[in-house]
């Protein structure tokens, strides 16, 4: 297919549900994993955040605890090509039902077309667009988490009236959990029982107006509201015998609006533009009470973004050139007020304003039928007003090469410069207190106003083999040369543990990635397998000492099977995910941390009752995953404290009934 034809058919994969994602992956000039929507819903994940944790090549952070996915939040997550932002109490990914997603696009190296802030790659969540035929979908999910109820309702209506296509959906969820954890130190043992409840309501709409074959206008809107309450009872036994009551509650509101247009100037030229607004506000309260001292912390946060962008694409012989620019303004604020027994002890207010602009150009060059080269360069400039004005600008070049060894074999190579800019909470000197829970694994958290951006040069090589039955096998490796690596450092100050980020030094990270997805139809009818694994190692030179990068897991793998019994209209399968442990050496402040490996097993079954209804059953976390973290503090080279934390999650099940009309 010529480049001009590709421009004309740019929306093909977005409107044709039968388009084969394996074929798309094979033809992409930039290495990209593509995961279909139906693969994302079968394991019963309640939202996009849960779903991304099991996605290979994606490393996101879940919060303060140790249950975040490996990688410390380095993957840049986008929704329909737009960056997402979160506050302490609200994450937009928690409002996206897997039923809303058309597919995931996972890019393990940066490219000029996307943000340069892609240190751990990019994952783009592509939401469903309205189909030409009217359709209504309703899905009810109910279950229990260790005896606590879980329920969600999803409904969607889509259709077309004249030149207007529309899609409207809503998700309502109310889920409760009952987990436990424990902490063991040299002087006491703590046992926690945590009961929590999460509620959310999400409204989303997508409108597409096509006045002619050359012009298309789109509106995307979302309004999401969520709240949660977490009650914990901690029994402390040892040097101090007491019961600590903990209360943590918060709510968040997210508003998202985008107006965009696509104009086909000719068979070989295309103009695209977007206007966007994103707002995320939240507030909450955290309280601890040991019958003697009542500590309370109130926080409010908001994140607002206004932006505009445009791009121009043209096909010239063997070249497919795309250039674009973006401007946006960001306002962020964080307020924290703290009390002890009703007396004010903390009153901090932080403000950040950022103006950011970017420009890029990328050229996809088809040298012949076998070789495609994609060079590009991106320039970004950020002006931040926070205590003092900070100007940051950088060029981020990238180069991708595709060599088609045969009809079913590809060899890929790429090199790209990427950056990681500090967030407001990493720059702010305000303190997020852990109150009476303060220890090695639950420190107070503050920022570092002198923190600099982290940058890296990333190299990747990958071989792909595509089976005739639409399966794939690949093996690849990447190497990252990192400057000013950002790491968290916990210090012991005035009897409390405090964590803050710092530029630790120059680092290196290398990895081997394996992937297999194969039908075993020739052996057992309807049987398929999938597996992927990542093996990694690292080094960091900090203050003249060479060690590994903190929290680098030796390996991660996912394995699973799917079996379709066509005669019974039944599909069932299993997936197991395992994350190996790590063992960090003693850092600058005399603290060392290690973590044991942990894994989770999920089972699912889905049966179509008729052309309208199907039912499903998900058994999640059958292994009842437990994460054990050991922290040690040394003083003048002598071990002075050891702490062992266990975070336990429990088995839960979900039953679904879905109808489509």
What does this structure look like?
- The structure is a single chain.
- This protein is mostly beta strands and 661 residues long.
- Helices cover 5% and strands 66% of the residues.
- It is built from six helices and 33 strands.
- It has helices spanning 3-8, 12-15, 21-27, 37-41, 48-53, 424-427; strands at 33-36, 76-79, 82-83, 101-107, 122-127, 135-145, 148-161, 164-185, 188-212, 215-238, 242-264, 269-289, 294-316, 319-340, 343-366, 371-386, 388-406, 409-420, 444-445, 454-466, 472-493, 496-519, 527-542, 545-547, 555-565, 570-579, 582-583, 591-595, 598-608, 613-620, 626-635, 638-648, 652-660.
- The radius of gyration is 25 Å and the shape is globular.
Tell me briefly what this model is.
With 661 residues, this protein is mainly beta. It has helices spanning 3-8, 12-15, 21-27, 37-41, 48-53, 424-427; strands at residues 33-36, 76-79, 82-83, 101-107, 122-127, 135-145, 148-161, 164-185, 188-212, 215-238, 242-264, 269-289, 294-316, 319-340, 343-366, 371-386, 388-406, 409-420, 444-445, 454-466, 472-493, 496-519, 527-542, 545-547, 555-565, 570-579, 582-583, 591-595, 598-608, 613-620, 626-635, 638-648, 652-660.
Write out key terms for the chains shown.
single chain; 661 residues; mainly beta; 22-stranded antiparallel β-barrel; 5-stranded mixed beta sheet; 6 helices; 5% helix; globular
């Amino acid at each position: 297919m010529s480049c001009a034809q590709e421009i004309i058919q740019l929306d093909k994969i977005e409107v044709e549900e039968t388009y084969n994602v394996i074929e798309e992956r094979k033809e992409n000039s930039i290495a990209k994993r593509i995961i279909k929507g139906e693969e994302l819903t079968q394991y019963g994940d309640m939202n996009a955040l849960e779903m991304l944790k099991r996605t290979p090549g994606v490393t996101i952070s879940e919060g303060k605890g140790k249950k975040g996915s490996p990688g410390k939040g380095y993957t840049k997550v986008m929704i329909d090509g737009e960056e997402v932002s979160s506050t302490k109490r609200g994450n937009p990914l928690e409002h996206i039902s897997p039923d809303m997603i058309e597919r995931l696009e996972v890019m393990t190296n940066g490219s000029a077309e996307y943000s340069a802030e892609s240190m751990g790659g990019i994952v783009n969540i592509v939401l469903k667009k309205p189909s030409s035929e009217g359709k209504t979908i309703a899905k009810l999910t109910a279950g229990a988490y260790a005896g606590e109820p879980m329920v969600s309702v999803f409904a969607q209506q889509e259709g077309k009236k004249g030149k207007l296509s529309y899609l409207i959906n809503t998700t309502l969820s109310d889920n409760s959990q009952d987990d436990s954890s424990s902490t063991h130190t040299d002087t006491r043992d703590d046992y926690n029982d945590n009961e929590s409840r999460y509620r959310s309501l999400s409204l989303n709409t997508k409108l597409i107006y096509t006045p002619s074959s050359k012009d298309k206008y789109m509106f995307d809107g979302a309004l999401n509201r969520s709240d949660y309450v977490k009650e914990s009872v901690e029994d402390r036994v040892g040097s101090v015998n007491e019961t600590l009551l903990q209360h943590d509650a918060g709510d968040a509101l997210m508003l998202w609006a985008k107006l965009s247009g696509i104009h086909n100037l000719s068979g070989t030229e295309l103009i695209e533009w977007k206007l966007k607004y994103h707002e995320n506000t939240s507030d909450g309260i955290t309280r601890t009470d040991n019958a003697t001292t009542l500590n309370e912390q109130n926080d409010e946060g908001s994140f607002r973004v206004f932006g505009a962008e445009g791009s121009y694409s043209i096909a010239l012989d063997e070249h497919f050139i795309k250039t674009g620019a973006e401007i946006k303004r960001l306002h962020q604020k964080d307020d924290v007020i703290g009390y002890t027994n009703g007396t004010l002890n903390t009153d901090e207010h932080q403000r950040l304003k950022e103006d950011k602009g970017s420009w890029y150009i990328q050229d996809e060059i088809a040298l012949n039928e076998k070789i495609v080269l994609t060079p590009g360069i991106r320039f970004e400039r950020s002006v931040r007003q926070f205590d003092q004005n900070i100007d940051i600008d950088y060029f981020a070049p990238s180069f991708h090469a595709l060599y088609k060894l045969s009809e079913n074999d590809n060899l890929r190579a790429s090199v790209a410069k990427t950056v990681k800019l500090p967030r407001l909470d990493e720059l702010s000197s305000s303190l997020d207190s852990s109150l009476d829970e303060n220890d090695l694994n639950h420190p107070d958290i503050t920022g570092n106003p002198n923190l600099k951006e982290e940058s890296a040069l990333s190299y990747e090589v990958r071989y792909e083999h595509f089976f005739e039955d639409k399966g794939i096998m690949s093996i690849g490796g990447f190497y990252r040369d990192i400057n000013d690596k950002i790491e968290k450092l916990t210090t012991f100050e005035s009897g409390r543990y405090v964590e803050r980020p710092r530029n630790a030094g120059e680092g290196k990270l290398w990895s081997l990635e394996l992937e297999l997805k194969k039908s075993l139809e020739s052996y057992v009818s309807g049987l398929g397998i999938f597996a992927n694994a990542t093996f990694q190692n690292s080094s960091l030179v900090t203050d003249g000492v060479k060690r590994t990068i903190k929290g680098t897991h030796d390996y991660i793998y996912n394995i699973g099977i799917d079996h379709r019994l066509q005669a019974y209209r039944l599909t069932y399968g299993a997936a197991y995910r395992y994350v190996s442990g790590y063992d960090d050496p003693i850092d600058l402040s005399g603290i060392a941390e290690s973590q044991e490996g942990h894994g989770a097993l999920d089972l699912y079954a889905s049966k179509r009752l008729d052309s309208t209804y199907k039912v499903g059953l998900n058994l999640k976390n059958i292994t009842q995953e437990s994460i054990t973290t050991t922290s040690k503090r040394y003083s003048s080279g002598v071990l002075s404290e050891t702490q062992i934390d266990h975070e336990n999650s429990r088995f839960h099940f979900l039953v679904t009934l879905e109808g489509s009309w």
